[in-house]
Amino acid sequence: MDLTLSKSELQFQQQVDEFLVAALKPEWRGVSDIDNRTQPAVMAAWQAVLAAKGWLTAGWPVANGGLGWSPMQHHIFKEACSKARAPKISTMSIGMVGPLICAFGSPEQQAFYLPRIINGADIWCQGFSEPGAGSDLASLKTAARHDADHCIVSGQKIWTTYAHVATQMFCLVRTDPQAVRPQAGISMLLIDMTLPGITVRPIHTIDGEHHFNEVFFDDVRVPVSCRLGGAHKGWDVARALLAFERSGIADVVATRQILGDVAAIVAGDTSGTASLLNGEDFTNRLTRLEIALDALEIYEMRVMEAAERKTARDHDASMMKILGSELKQDIHSLGIEALGILAAAWPDDEAPAHASGAGGKLVVDALFARASSIYGGANEIQRNIVAKTLLKSTVEI
Ligand SMILES: Cc1cc2nc3c(=O)[nH]c(=O)nc-3n(C[C@H](O)[C@H](O)[C@H](O)COP(=O)(O)OP(=O)(O)OC[C@H]3O[C@@H](n4cnc5c(N)ncnc54)[C@H](O)[C@@H]3O)c2cc1C
After folding, report:
1. Whose CA is nearest to atom 48 of ligand 1?
2. For residue 149, is pLDDT > 60?
3. The pLDDT of residue 36 is above 60
4. Collapsed DSSP state (helix, strand, coil) of residue 76
5. Residues known to be catalytic
């Protein structure tokens, strides 16, 4: 695969760089995915700038406002945003539910929801997991019974990221308890989070943040018009969504930014300690991680190209999810080891600037990144998918 940029790609890269210099306010730089929970106004303002340029929904189908960019153009854009430390955009809204509504929504649903996603009127959360249904998602119990033109929803979701700030949830519910296959009795509802009967309770995580929640439904009346993809067709919709979610988790561009931060710590630039690059151990380990990331980048681009030609394989998203999440964790671990005792500092601790700044932030990010091998489908389950799809082609299992 030739990764050398063509003349037109170089021109596009320059166009993106110039746009970022002009459009990105200095105070927005460095606002991370995690900060988006506490500073949603920055994410909204940045998304408005991108929407005005037409670049917020570049990856959507052209009929719904997408730009038909090539995989390389997407890569150039993501890389430039990452280098400029632009705020993250909402994965849940722009990267997940938006494309899903483009694919499965009725014209009325598209006309209502898509503009609200683009102008930031709605923040979305994903209501899939339940206390007894994570890896085995098809066993979910939150039920929706039919009553004229409403579905009446009762049950509980858990680990619902953003539910405390969200205005809408895309939610899997059981609509046919008699279905022979549990997957065949599930529907997807788009639920307005302000409806009576919804209670959101926080769950706090080891990084000290409030990312996710428990959500309780007590006879919540959801109009049937908010069902996405037809009655009992929720599993097909969810499968399409999980593929978007898993492939996004590889997130090579963001991982390269973390690798750059860790390389600076190892070199002593931000840790304030002597450079560890004088010894072979850290140099070799850093180099191995760089090589692994380069390989993952090429794999990601090959999969993006294959997806464009509709030849991506079932297990590609799972492979990228495993490789991307575990590589990110390995990079964080090296950074923490390099920080040594400074890794004990928290970002807002009264400590030397180098310790409470880059080091403290790395530790917080590293603690949250432990979850990346769980969310979006645990890595053990992804390994099962890879084994099943790859071995099936050579061995009957
Ligand atoms: C930070 C974070 C954010 C999340 N955000 C959301 C969200 O917004 N919305 C949402 O719906 N969910 C969310 N989740 C939930 C996530 O999707 C589930 O945690 C995940 O699917 C695993 O389910 P579980 O936690 O019930 O673990 P379980 O399914 O109980 O699994 C426990 C362990 O057993 C292993 N295991 C289970 N079955 C098998 C098997 N057949 N073979 C081998 N090993 C197996 C798993 O790999 C895991 O290690 C989030 C999770 C995290 C950590």
Report:
1. 378
2. yes
3. no
4. helix
5. 245
d(CA 73, CA 342): 39
Task: Determine which residue's CA is closest to atom 35 belonging to ligand 1.
Answer: 380
Instruction: Give the whole-angstrom CA distance, residue 366 versus residue 360.
Output: 10
Q: Which helix (H) or strand (E) holds 186?
A: strand 186-192
Backbone angles phi, psi at 3, to 5 degrees: -95, 5
Could you give the count of Cα atoms lying within 13 Å of 262 in the half-sphere of its Cβ? 29
Least Cα distance to 361 among 265, 273, 281, 275 occurs for: 265
Ligand 1 and 124: CB distance under 6 A: no
113/23 Cα distance (integer angstroms):
27
Q: What is the pLDDT of residues 200-259, one digit of tens each?
A: 999 998 887 888 999 999 999 999 999 999 999 999 999 888 766 666 667 888 899 899
DSSP, residue by residue, 187-227: EEEEEETTSTTEEEEEE--TTS---EEEEEEEEEEEEGGGE
pLDDT in tens, 97-116: 999 999 999 999 999 999 99
Q: From the CA of 129, how far away is ligand 1's center (Å)?
A: 8
Q: 187 near 175, Cβ under 8 Å?
A: yes
